[in-house]
Amino acid sequence: MHLPAEFREVRRSGKRLSDAYFSLSVLANQGGRPRLGLAISTRSAGSSVARNLIKRIARESFRLNQQDLPAVDVTVAARDAARGVAAHALRASLEKHWSTIRQRW
Question: Which member of 38, 44, 81, 91 has the greatest number of CB atoms within 10 A?
Fold first, then answer.
């Protein structure tokens, strides 16, 4: 997803999933494939290095799981607790979210 209007629509109309590290909004789409939007703020991640690491982890996790996901738009927002957490904990958190999306949609 690239357009601000797409992000707004998913955040406004989508179902929310959240845990200590991430808040996801999920909305079915008509495109036939899953799409990812990232909203990783400086406030939640800290430095640009940490913010970019969280984004890389989220993109890679999505890439590895997208073939099993239904046609949905997903926005991923990091929470304050994601700052300074080990990468494997963030990956595990996202894996749980992808599993939930596969089951519900």
Answer: 44
